[in-house]
Amino acid sequence: MAVGLFSKAAKEAFLERVARDEVALSFVRVERGGLDDFLPAPFADVAAVSIADAFRFRSSGTQTKRDEFVYGFTAAQIERQVKDWLAAPAAEAQAAFHASRDRDWSEAHATSFDAALVRETAYRPLDRRLHYAHRAFNDFLRTDLRAAWGATNIALYAMPSGTGAGPAVWVHGLIPDYHAFRGSYGGYAFPLYDRRNGPGAHNLNPDLLRGLEAAYARRVRPEDVFHAITALLSATSYTRRFAWDLEEAFPHIPFPADPAVFEDAARIGAEIAALETFARQPAAAFRTARLAGKATGVTLQVPPIGRAFLPDGSGSGAIPLQHDSSLRLAGVPERVFAFGVSGYRVLYRWLVARAGEPLAEVQRDALDIAWRLAELLHWFDQADPVLDAALARPLSRATLGL
């Protein structure tokens, strides 16, 4: 036994002595608050800028509290859902509404359906839906975000804590839902532009932009900063490297000291943003998934997740689109099926949400999601060596004027 250790026998003897003589044990009163300051500060050992400091304005996404009848896949579906609720007896309508502190069922029940308020929205990663944006039916429409958004915009969506495996941000090209990052626990949108300040006014911290321009000795476009952030925070290893830090804080960006590395990040981030916002089609090289078989039914049927992927031994497999596997999404890379954003399985959850929908309306879109994820994983991997280079020589907050 090492000398000086408090052995088991010594502890037992001490406890027996205290039991006989209570004055043998004394306490010292410590005047202090909680113990949070004993924890190391998140991202304390890396020169990085919080995403919250990189933008001037941020906002949570739309919070409805009643998704089941204000979201849908078609305008006709939303119209039917809302009109059915409006026509329901008062007691039934009240029970279905889920009244909250901010919205009472009676106000909504006194309205008429307004088709002009049905708008496309970003519900989840790669999951666009239609939304009935009527004030009486939604707890928080985020009017400031909508004003900043304007007619078109893109935004990074991130969580202030609890970010898990997968990319640390997601780019949305439509007004996002509150849970648009991982399907739960909310999050914040950081728009590229703030249209309240003019049609081309960006939303980046002007000090950050000036700091980057000084460091690189050239003009830096806000769009390039946005895309560089996208790449660095989407790199395959980012959430693994900073797993503990992300439990406690927003993602932090290590801006590279080398302008060439910044340019690489901006180039890769632009590709990621284009895919995540549906601004372009997936490249042909990533379209390995295909439809196989002939469906015995007419609606999408999704098996439980334990039976939802049939590996073929080559690193790919098939996803049954019918319970009898008569129609399958074949040639799906295993990484694509397994891909998740902080636990949210993107492809599988997309399919589950559409279970019961007509196959003719969803099967081509399912292919697109699989192709899109395959190319996104490629760009996340491409961002990894760029993240390595940025972490090897990052710009300090002081250098950036922050």
Description:
This protein is of the alpha+beta class and 402 residues long. It folds into 2 domains: 49-280 and 385-392, no CATH class; 284-381, no CATH class. It has 15 helices and 14 strands. The chain has helices at residues 8-20, 51-54, 67-70, 75-87, 90-97, 105-109, 143-149, 206-216, 222-234, 238-241, 243-248, 259-276, 334-338, 346-353, 359-392; strands spanning 49-50, 71-72, 118-124, 127-132, 155-158, 170-172, 188-191, 252-253, 290-293, 310-311, 316-320, 327-333, 340-341, 344-345.
Structure characteristics:
four-stranded antiparallel β-sheet, 2 domains, 15 helices, 38% helix, three-stranded antiparallel β-sheet, alpha+beta, 402 residues, 13% strand
